[in-house]
Design goal:
Its cofactor is Mg(2+); Mn(2+). By secondary structure, the chain is of the alpha/beta class. Helix content is about 40%, strand content about 10%. The strands form four sheets. The chain has a seven-stranded mixed β-sheet, with helices on both faces. A five-stranded parallel β-sheet has the order 2-4-3-5-6, sandwiched between helices. It has a two-stranded parallel sheet with strand order 1-16.
Length: about 600
C-alpha cells in the first residue's frame, strides 16, 4: 500500500494545526536534527537542506530518494534470521527515522503486519526485559501513584497529544500477564493508528500502568524491569487508574484514551466507568465487536436474514465475546426499534460451564450477567455443551471466542446448517492454532453454504471447484478509523451510536456488498481509505448528536473528506524550514513525543 503525495500547500485546509502539506518548522540543526526521528531524513536530505541545517560533514555525500532508502532497509530487514529479530530491527529503525519506518511497512504491509503486531509482538513483549535496549513510552507504577500528574506533564503541552494508549499488562495478546512489557502493546497499537489512519506519530503517547505481575517467570527473573511483586488489585488499583485518567484529562483535555489488554475482571468495568465521562475506547471489548458486527451486516446482505428475527450464539463469553454481544445488541436495537434489553434476548452466550443461566449469577462477570437466561426456560433441556444449545436455539450466527481449538465440531455445524439456509460462522480465537474450526471444514460440512470470517489470516479454500476468500476479522480495519474520527471531531464521548456509524461504514466497504468479491470484510491493504470513510461517519454522527467540539468542520461530503485527508500523516518527507527558537513550539524544538527536560524541569537554586 502506498501513500499519496500532497501539494506543498493546501489553500483550503493548510491552515489547520494538523495539516500535513507545506514545510515543517524546526529550530534544530546538525546532529540534533539527525537524532530527531520525526525530522530525520538520513541520506535523503537535499543539498539545500544540508547547507541550511549544517549536515554536510554528518552524512555520506550521495543523496538518495526515500524509495532507495526503503530498498536498503528492506534488504537489511530480510537478512534477519527470524521474526523476533526482524521485530527488533524495526523497533530500532523507528527510533531513527519515522518516515522510513512507516514507508517500509506500508510498502510490505501484508508481509510485515504479523511481525510488527500479532503474533510476533507477543514474543517481543514476553522477552521485553531480556531484549531491552532503550525505553519508549511512559512508565507509571502503582507505588508512585501520587506522582502521576507530574509524570504525565512531561510528555507535552495540553495541545500536543491526540491519542493515549494505555495497558496494565494483565491479559496480553492471548499470552497472559506480562507486567511492564505491556508498554510494547501500547507502542504497537499506536503504530497501527499511524499506519492505518494517519495519526501523527509524534502526537501519540504509549503508557503502561505497572501494578506488579502474577507471572512467576517474570518475578523469578533478576532482569525483569517492572515492579517485582504480585499484582495489586481492589480499591488501590481503582484509585491508581482513576488518578491516571484524571491526570490525562487535566493535562491533555482533547486526547482520546484507548484502553488495551486489561484483565477480564477490569476491562469492561473500567470502560463502563469512563465511557459516560470521556472519549475512550477498549479494542478488546469494542474493536472486536465492531469488526465482527460489520462482517455480520455484510453476511445478512447475502443471506437475507432480518435483524428482528436473527438468533446469535456466542461460544466464549470473556471480554471479546461479551464485547461482540454488546455490539450486536446495540445493532439489533438500532435496526428494529426494540429496547436494548429486548434485543439481548436474541443472543445466547455459552462459556466453560455451558449456557449462561441466572441461577449461576454469582459465578458470572458483570459483562456476562445481562445475557444469563432464566433457568425455567431450560428446565428439562440439555444446555451443557454447544451442540445441545444449537439444537434448541437454531442460530443464524455462531461466533467463537473461546480459544478452544476444534470446538465447532462437524456434528454442531451440520446441526446448525439443518435449520438455516446460509449459516454465518465466525471462529475468531487466535492465534490460528486456537481456532474453533478450520474454514475448509466449515465449507465442506455445510456444502459450501457457510458464510465465514476468522480471527487470523487463512488462505482461500476450495469447495466443489470454487475458490472462496476467507475474510479476517482484523481490528486494524476498525479501531484506527474510529480513533481518527474521534480525534478530528474532538468528540466529548465515544457513544454506541458513533460505533454503529463506524460499523456501517466498514460493512459498506465489504467486497460482497459492493460486488467486488465474496469477502465479508475489506482487505487490510485498503485500510487507509476505509479509515477515511469510518472517520467521516463518526464525525458526522458526532456533529448530529452534538458531541463534536472541533469548530468549522465541513458539512459537504467532498470537503469533509479533503479536510480529513489533509490532517492524516503520510510516510513522505516534507521540506524543513529553519526558525528561531523563541517562536517555536515543542514539535519544532524536537521535544514532541519525548519527556523534555526543558518543559517542566526543577532547578536547584
Amino acid at each position: 500500500m502506498s501513500t499519496t503525495s500532497k501539494p506543498q500547500d493546501n489553500s483550503k485546509f493548510g491552515h489547520l494545526p494538523l495539516s500535513t502539506s507545506g514545510p515543517q518548522e524546526t529550530t534544530l540543526t546538525g546532529n540534533a536534527l539527525l537524532r530527531t526521528p520525526y525530522f530525520n531524513k538520513g541520506s535523503a536530505f537535499t543539498k539545500e537542506e544540508r547547507d541550511t541545517f549544517k549536515l554536510h560533514s554528518l552524512l555520506p555525500s550521495n543523496m538518495q530518494t526515500l524509495d532507495e532508502q526503503v530498498r536498503r532497509a528492506y534488504a537489511q530487514y530480510s537478512s534477519r534470521p527470524n521474526d523476533l529479530a526482524k521485530n527488533t530491527f524495526m523497533a530500532s529503525l523507528k527510533e531513527q527515522n519515522h518516515v522510513l519506518y512507516y514507508k517500509l511497512i506500508l510498502d510490505h504491509l501484508k508481509e510485515m503486519f504479523p511481525v510488527i503486531y500479532t503474533p510476533t509482538e507477543g514474543d517481543a513483549i514476553a522477552e521485553y526485559s531480556t531484549l531491552f535496549r532503550r525505553s519508549e513510552g511512559c512508565f507509571l507504577n502503582i507505588d508512585d501513584a501520587d506522582r502521576i500528574e507530574d509524570d504525565i506533564k512531561q510528555w507535552g503541552n495540553p495541545e500536543d497529544i491526540d491519542v493515549i494508549v494505555v495497558s496494565d499488562g494483565q491479559q496480553i495478546l492471548g499470552i497472559g500477564d506480562q507486567g511492564v512489557g505491556a508498554i510494547l502493546i501500547s507502542v504497537a497499537k499506536l503504530v497501527i493508528y499511524t499506519l492505518c489512519a494517519g495519526i501523527h506519530p509524534s502526537r501519540t503517547l504509549p503508557v503502561v500502568l505497572d501494578c506488579g505481575t502474577d507471572n512467576k517467570e517474570l518475578l523469578d527473573d533478576d532482569l525483569y524491569l517492572g515492579l517485582p511483586k504480585g499484582r495489586v488489585q481492589g480499591e488501590r488499583y481503582d484509585d491508581f487508574v482513576d488518578k491516571f485518567v484524571s491526570a490525562c484529562r487535566k493535562r491533555y483535555p482533547k486526547a482520546y484514551i484507548h484502553f488495551e489488554d486489561f484483565g477480564l475482571n477490569n476491562a469492561r468495568r473500567i470502560l463502563d466507568k469512563y465511557t459516560p465521562e470521556i472519549a475512550c475506547f477498549n479494542d478488546d471489548v469494542q474493536g472486536t465487536g465492531c469488526v465482527t458486527l460489520a462482517a455480520i451486516m455484510a453476511a445478512f446482505k447475502v443471506s437475507g436474514v432480518n435483524w428482528d428475527e436473527a438468533r446469535f450464539v456466542m461460544f466464549g463469553s470473556g471480554s471479546a465475546g461479551t464485547g461482540i454481544a454488546d455490539q450486536i445488541k446495540d445493532a439489533i436495537a438500532q435496526n428494529t426499534g426494540k429496547s436494548v434489553e429486548e434485543a439481548g434476548r436474541q443472543i445466547w452466550c455459552v462459556d466453560k460451564p455451558g449456557l449462561l443461566l441466572q441461577g449461576k449469577k454469582n459465578e458470572l462477570t458483570p459483562a456476562q450477567l445481562p445475557y444469563a437466561r432464566a433457568d425455567k426456560e431450560w428446565e428439562g433441556k440439555e444446555h451443557g455443551d454447544l451442540l445441545s444449545v444449537i439444537k434448541e436455539v437454531k442460530p443464524h450466527v455462531l461466533i467463537g471466542t473461546s480459544t478452544k481449538p476444534g470446538a465447532f465440531t462437524q456434528d454442531a455445524i451440520r446441526e446448525m446448517a439443518k435449520h438455516v439456509e446460509r449459516p454465518v460462522i465466525f471462529p475468531l480465537s487466535n492465534p490460528t492454532r486456537l481456532h474453533e474450526a478450520k474454514p475448509q471444514d466449515l465449507y465442506d460440512w455445510t456444502d459450501g453454504k457457510a458464510l465465514v470470517a476468522t480471527g487470523s489470516p487463512f488462505p482461500p479454500v476450495k469447495h466443489n471447484g470454487k475458490e472462496y476468500e476467507i475474510s479476517e476479522c482484523n481490528n486494524s480495519v476498525t479501531f484506527p478509523g474510529i480513533g481518527l474520527g474521534a480525534i478530528l471531531s474532538r468528540t466529548r464521548l465515544m457513544t454506541p451510536a458513533l460505533l454503529v456509524a463506524a460499523v456501517k461504514a466498514l460493512a459498506s466497504a465489504a467486497p460482497v456488498v459492493n460486488n467486488s468479491g465474496a469477502g465479508l470484510l475489506p482487505d487490510v491493504e485498503n485500510v487507509r481509505e476505509i479509515s477515511v470513510q469510518i472517520a467521516k461517519s463518526v464525525i458526522k454522527k458526532a456533529i448530529e448528536d452534538d458531541l463534536a467540539q472541533e469548530k468549522d468542520i465541513p458539512t459537504n461530503d467532498d470537503d469533509l473528506e479533503e479536510w480529513i485527508r489533509e490532517q492524516m500523516w503520510n510516510a513522505e518527507y516534507r521540506p524543513l524550514k529553519l526558525i528561531k527558537e523563541h517562536t517555536a513550539n515543542a514539535h519544532a524544538k524536537g521535544e514532541a513525543g519525548t519527556a523534555s527536560g526543558h518543559r517542566e524541569a526543577k532547578f536547584d537554586h
